[in-house]
Amino acid sequence: MPSEPLSRARIVAAAIDLIEREGADAVSMRRIASDLNVGVMSLYNHVPNKASLLDGVAESVLSQIEFTDDPGAHWTDRVRMQARAFRQIAHHYPRSTMLVVSRQLHSNAGLFPVERALTTLRQAGFDGADAVRMLRLFIAYVIGSLLREVGVTPTFAPVPGAAPVGDVDPELFPQVSELASLLGSCDHEEEFDFGLELLIQSIAVHLERKGTRG
Amino acid sequence: MPSEPLSRARIVAAAIDLIEREGADAVSMRRIASDLNVGVMSLYNHVPNKASLLDGVAESVLSQIEFTDDPGAHWTDRVRMQARAFRQIAHHYPRSTMLVVSRQLHSNAGLFPVERALTTLRQAGFDGADAVRMLRLFIAYVIGSLLREVGVTPTFAPVPGAAPVGDVDPELFPQVSELASLLGSCDHEEEFDFGLELLIQSIAVHLERKGTRG
DNA sequence: CCAGGGGGACGTACACCGTACGTATGCCTC
DNA sequence: GAGGCATACGTACGGTGTACGTCCCCCTGG
After folding, report:
1. Distance CA A77, CA A85 (A)
2. Nucleotide D6: nearest residue by CA–C1'?
3. Nearest-CA residue to the C1' of C8?
4. What's this model's pTM, rounded to 2 decimal places?
5. What is the pLDDT of residues B180-192, one digit of tens each?
6. Which A residues between 89 and 108 have a beta carbon under 7 A from any strand D atom?
7. What is the pLDDT of residues B135-156, one digit of tens each?
8. A156 contacts chain B (CB < 8 A)
């Protein structure tokens, strides 16, 4: 009973599953084939090579972002929701997220969020150039934040002790030493929202200035 | 003539050189040994394993950041300079930078910049918790920006055409399509500085509010 | 009903990888 | 000079991605 006919989607799903369970290093064609109860070379009937498979992983994760957009809401609320949607998917696929952010996509899967964000920003009143700028600003912040959140610990456990602060010399690093407890623990959600609000407010005043001037 | 006695530093240097020339995928113990005209296993007298070697690469790159700090300058100027120093080293070692940001450091090499930044922020008037918060905010933005700058193209060539925008359906992605030229080209330095100024101004008003209130 | 063909599953094989282990060779100390 | 130790090195093993050839099933045309 072949259960289900092997397909690119099934292979990608198996890869994501494996990555989340054992990390990206555990991914090998043999291992995936084994998980699917299939010969190694059978995979190559649906996937040209491993790199393409990993691209598929990124694409799949990216396309699973759930945007619940309310076109009637204020634009600040809408960009907030979009940024949170990104963070949510990263929370759901923490290990795979590292792949997404460290590979450049050649697919159009990443364009849906971009299109949506640009639409929101232009409706808010930004011209094309500013919309692109603001988008890049947000992407940089979101990606950077997610990288810290999911990259700080390979297991994504609730971070037991402290990643960067193990045994520091108080003479060499007085500040780090004094603030060790703050540096070691982190309410990721709270930190993320803090920066997000700061960014939104900043570009809101940016928009206001441009609007009243031009 | 053994030219120079093999050492961890020399091995790490060879690794960085190789990464910058041919990318991180080209790195293998055999290849590095070959580049150094040395047996493969000789490397293991100075480096416990490959992962540690890559840690060494990250550490080396990080420690080469040139901070030209002026303790007398205004704190906004100082954080600006520190952020730019980060970006400068990423520019100098683009491919290695990807390694730095995608690995979590277990070494203290990454603590020097942290210590410096915290000192600056606390001298500016932030309390411990806020200093840590602002530091995380800046790190997220800087890392996210660098990831886009160096990750957009594996060769770090001046980006020939456009990474994300090749052939988009104008029906599906009207905004992306309309802004294709803007999305495709990017004055990285200008964009980086724009976001940086925005961030600095934001936390400046944050500081002001706290100061006048408490 | 059968012949032919195309596509998917699979085994084998090769080049390469990280590295454990054993060995040889130089220098440094007693 | 003898002993010991750090370093350079060769060999070998299990794992990797994947090119290539083979087999079998199913689908189609006659």
Report:
1. 12
2. B45
3. A45
4. 0.91
5. 999 888 899 999 9
6. none
7. 999 999 999 999 988 875 443 3
8. no
